[in-house]
Amino acid sequence: MNRKPVGQGGGGDARSGESAVPGRVAPAGVVKIGLVQSACSDNREHNIAQALRGIAEARRQGAEVVCLQELFAGQYPCQAEEQAKFEEAEVVPGPLTARMAAAAKEHGVVLVASVFERRSAGLFHNTSIVLERDGSEAGRYRKMHIPDDPHYYEKFYFAPGDTGFMSVPTSKLDVGPLVCWDQWYPEAARLTAMAGAQVIFYPTAIGWLAGEEDLQRAQYESWDTMLRSHAIANGVFVVAVNRCGSEGPLRFWGASVVYAPSGEQILKLGHDEPATAVFECDLSRLEWSRTRWPFFRDRRIDAYGDLLLRWGR
Predict the structure, then answer these.
(1) pTM for this one?
(2) Which residues are catalytic?
């Protein structure tokens, strides 16, 4: 796996958004990217099969890169603290990632897939795997920010990631793999962009909790605003692929979305229905945006030392 992490002792130039591999020219041109938004049942095989169909459909629409939603193989496991849910985890590489690798190779696409990783006895991660067009593993990111909210009890299941923030070079583009809760952290998007990512991908499982209907609009708009702001502040494309449908008291709000480096909304899927969609990603827009809004150039890294404090002064 060839990648360049930052923010976790992984090196990298924290002053610019250079290619993730020194001396490597980042991919250019127009790349077609597919999003697969699904509703999951309690039948694991059904969920995997629908993901495979989504990959195939995205390819039929011309996709060269495809992103699935967070933990696509099952219903969201973290609504309660249940020991039995650990049985859903798999080693990586393992049977699930082998099937995803076979799909990537069959359809000739770069694939971003989110899995419940069993790292070792008693140690689990919420992990995003980046697979090359030949099915080989290009990179592996373990979710760094782990939430603990009602019906999102991820700290019970997942250890915080140890990969740092990274850019994963692939044959089509430099992938910035982040996951769901990472969406709320400007630092995560910034470090991923500065590692060289051209497109930040957020496999996601976020929705409304029954009884909070009065907050729905505000919660959704806050989430959407954060995604758009990451695109603008970092001069990157942002792709969030969210699940839809109801699971217990959670109703996932779908609305998978794509933002350009300028903040333009390129694509948005519906709130309630599964869908597969493809958009054209013109990588030249990164240079255009960054030369007109030179946020990387104007950063004052000499004055940001307090970011290392937990609470500020």
Answers:
(1) 0.94
(2) 70, 143, 180
